[in-house]
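Why Tryptophan 2,3-dioxygenase? Reviewers of the renewal asked for a concrete example.
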Amino acid sequence: MQKNTTPCYYGEYLQLDKFLDAQKPVSGQYQDKEAHDEMLFIIVHQAYELWFKQILHELNWVLEAFNEPVLDTKKYGRIVQRLDRIIQIQKLLNQQIGILETMTPLDFLDFRDYLVPASGFQSIQFKEIEILLGLKMEYRINFDKKSFYNRLNDEDREHLMALEEKPGVFDQLEAWLERMPFLEKKNFSFVEAYQNAVEEMLSNDREIIDNIDCLSDKDREFQIKDLEKTRQQFDALFNKETFERLSAEGHFRMSQKSLLSAVFINLYRDEPAFQQPYQLIGKLVDIDEEFTQWRYRHTIMVHRMLGAKIGTGGSSGHDYLKQTTQNNRFFKDLFNMSTFLIPRSSLPKLPPHLEEAMGLKSE
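Here is what the prediction returned.
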């Protein structure tokens, strides 16, 4: 049944008169004929900004859902759905780099020098996405710390600085994990049971290393040292002082309790109560991975286009982008969590009252 009283016309609805008139190459202002590939350059970046707008639309909904004293479990499915939508958009953004790569370095040089000092530094929406996901100033690489706001006008700078003061997805995720009620339940302590299971697993691994006849003394020594490193990583998870020391050194960003909760969810992902939380955590890892791939592909493309030249915004170009790929990550702790997983066969059995609490009530 038609609900609108005024007919909706396709071009007017999409405002195509404005949209298709928004490509204004600058090269034609300085030379007889505008550079052919500048149109492609503009359209690809405009498309990026449109998709950034949609990503922000989804992220703001997710943040609003998390911004409650208790996360409504009925919203888990929609949170996962909206995070997955972001991931699909990111995949599309990664594919768009291939379109931009149809432009050769000489094609780019036809108009590049007319763009100074404009650069991706000035994409406010991309900076918003980074901040909302949790990449605040203190976690950025040194070049960003010095220049992140330098190339922006006062209004944009104030807007982003205010955004830094608000909790982002990382903060909300950490708070949500810290509220997870199953770590200590009646007479069951997950941390204690998990620590015992880890110790048994590591002891079995040491016994295997000691009893393999085909290992040379050098190989045996190497495997023992490697096992000891694994033991030290687990010890950091269980020892509060060690964990806080390593956090201060930048090895961890999440709190000890939130990381233990994330490990618990991953280990017992098959329990009905944890299936959607597990997907939620996995989608955030996927988002981080897609952004890392986008940064990497962007880095390779810039290297191909510019070689060792500096960027139009004054950065070191390829070298700068390479650093951001390696360091500007949102959820490193979730990526490293596989370090703390143990085989299903080694999982401590949950007590009946906890299995019931985490099960499907209809059964």
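The chain is about 60% helix and 0% strand. This is the kind of structural detail the renewal will allow us to pursue systematically.
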